[in-house]
């Protein structure tokens, strides 16, 4: 065997060993990757089971809200007179609440079911941005409704919101919300989290992005500005409805006083002795003059007109109280969420420090804002007899 053959055999042997080593390395890498994915899925499953009570609550919110808001849209959009002044904002509010409910439920359910394998940076940013926009639009629209009711009740002879201004107010509420929460796209996204107990397995959550102290200060400034805008909305709505309540109470007292006077009117005459008595009126139907008939007909029409005006005013008052109740419920639903946003911003380790029972209670309160997006159909049913009747006909046939 010559030297060249020996050299070829040695090179071939070296190549075979290298291939075997590379194959062994590839197998090891593949096994490690499979093991890492298995641990990651196991970690995700454990965490999603921990969130299960809240997941059930969110599913109930979504089921009730979709049925209720769709019923509101069907009844008020297609079943009732669209020209009714007091009910105009109900349909836009129902559409916004439906959208907000779907977006917030999708976002929170995804965070519950895929807590450490959130599907994508873009999905995280989009869902959290739309959650803020739709929720804020709903609150702004309640402000526009309060202004409309204030003009209707407190300034009945002044300028009113016509159909153009109502549509424009819905558009303005949406545009302001879209622009106001653009910074959310820069402060939230996919954040890496590590589980040291499972061999330093890394997962991905949708949360606030880490950053420099200046970036965190910017986030606090943005949240503070958003909190100020929200509080300003609530204060404005509160002041307007206080004025509306005072005006309604005064008008109800005036209506009651007029009714009492009408019921107590007695035609009296005085005789020579100064005594007062109610005259006895005898009417001969056969000899009744046309003047008497006209007088009785006119009196009947006046009574019918007064009754119609009274019923219209009471309907207006009832709708105002309905929207007032919606605003109060919205404020109570948002209040815990605002409180926990402030807490978690100033204490990032807040949620990790809670025991299980306290964690689930606080998480339910943190996401309590979703109640505002599905409770309105029940309020409409309590205050609007026409809506209640339509719903009975729809579901009880």
Automatic annotation (TrEMBL):
Compartments annotated for it: namely: Membrane
Pinpoint the G-protein coupled receptors family 1 profile domain residues. 68-380
| GO CC terms in record | plasma membrane
Which Pfam families does the UniProt record give?
A: 7tm_1
Keywords, A to Z, come to: G-protein coupled receptor, Membrane, Receptor, Transducer, Transmembrane, Transmembrane helix
Checking Gene3D superfamilies in the record gives: Rhodopsin 7-helix transmembrane proteins
The membrane-spanning stretches of this chain are 50-76, 88-107, 127-147, 168-190, 225-249, 319-343
Molecular function as annotated in GO: G protein-coupled receptor activity
Q: How does it sit in the membrane?
A: Multi-pass membrane protein
PANTHER family, alphabetically? G-PROTEIN COUPLED RECEPTOR, G-PROTEIN COUPLED RECEPTOR 19-RELATED
The name this protein carries in UniProt is: G-protein coupled receptors family 1 profile domain-containing protein
